[in-house]
Specification:
Length: 329
């Protein structure tokens, strides 16, 4: 292809992405005031009292930790109710159920929560779910549902941890097209994985990173001591290939045939004051990930019960080869 043709193609792609950014910003500007509800970050909450890293996992230490975090959730529920935020109060009331197991919680700034599914004290396999955009306490049920289905499929001697440990971007926003939120989240994810190795040092740990969560995992990868990093519905991780991630972990990638993220331009370029895009497609052969079959599902369907994507994620977390795996370095 001639240089002039290449330049025109690049110009067209950049122009299209700029129009998409502008349209998204206008849509967000219109949508926010029309909803009539408080932004998730605007709901007040007290400073949590439980902030120290948890101790090595035994049934006794974990029970004490879960009880302490539950008290923080109840305090946040009372604050939300006292300020008239009934939806948030209802979400927190459900989260404070004694049957739930949360390692940490902070109701401020949209909310942070780290919830355990299964018996962490006895788990040989641990999957950490890192969610994508628009995940916060008011929409926490979506993350929780995926974690529950993954744990049910994994079975005994496994634990799944839903890690809402960062301020996720709105899907329709400039933040969702830049690494700013991921750069904020990466140190927290590294710190949590270090804490997890103290809690359960013998367990096999795998990160399962969805959508913008894969950007977080990509930015944190070089400092993570895990067996595997699974990228699903990923727009890119800002690395040109697996080698550039600088991780000893096996990197897996899967994308459903109905996932809209396939149509996101896999580019990375500078605009005034910001770099936009996440680079190479993780399921592309040149990226070098081990690609597994993810079925026909859409962007939110990777944890659908019985789906090829869930079956293969379970196999990866369990240390087995998934169906139709190809590529990899």
């Amino acid at each position: 292809m001639a240089c002039g043709t290449v330049d025109r193609v690049i110009h067209v792609n950049v122009s299209r992405l700029r129009r998409t950014l502008l349209a998204g910003s206008l849509a967000a500007a219109v949508a926010v005031p029309v909803t009539g509800t408080a932004r998730p970050a605007a709901v007040p909450a007290p400073v949590p009292s439980t902030t120290a890293p948890p101790r090595p996992a035994t049934p006794e230490t974990l029970a004490a930790r879960y009880a302490a975090v539950r008290r923080d959730i109840v305090a946040a529920e009372r604050t939300a109710a006292g300020h008239g935020h009934r939806w948030r109060a209802a979400m927190l009331h459900a989260m404070a159920d004694p049957a739930r197991r949360l390692l940490s919680f902070d109701g401020r700034d949209g909310g942070r929560a780290v919830e355990v599914f299964g018996d962490l004290a006895a788990a040989d396999r641990v999957a950490v779910l890192v969610p994508g955009g628009d995940t916060h306490l008011d929409k926490y049920g979506l993350l929780r549902g995926g974690a529950l289905r993954l744990h049910q499929a994994l079975g005994d001697r496994s634990a799944v941890i839903a890690w809402l440990g960062y301020r996720t971007p709105s899907t329709v926003s400039l933040a969702a097209l830049t690494t700013g939120r991921a750069d904020e989240a990466a140190p927290a994810l590294r710190a949590f994985v270090r804490e997890l190795t103290v809690l359960r040092p013998a367990a096999r740990v795998t990160l399962v990173c969805h959508s913008y969560g894969s950007v977080v995992c990509g930015r944190a990868a070089s400092g993570l001591d895990v067996e595997g990093i699974v990228l699903i519905g990923s727009p890119g991780v800002t690395a040109a290939d697996v080698g550039a991630m600088r991780t000893p972990a096996t990197v897996w990638a899967g994308r459903g045939r109905g996932d809209w993220v396939a149509h996101v331009p896999h580019v990375r370029f500078r605009l005034p004051f910001v770099t936009v895009g996440f680079g190479t497609d993780p399921v592309a052969p040149d990226f070098g990930a081990r690609v597994f079959a993810a079925g026909d599902g859409g962007h939110s369907d990777y944890f659908t019960a019985g789906s090829p994507s869930l079956v293969n994620i379970v196999r990866i977390v369990s240390g087995q080869l998934p169906a139709e795996a190809r590529g990899g370095r």
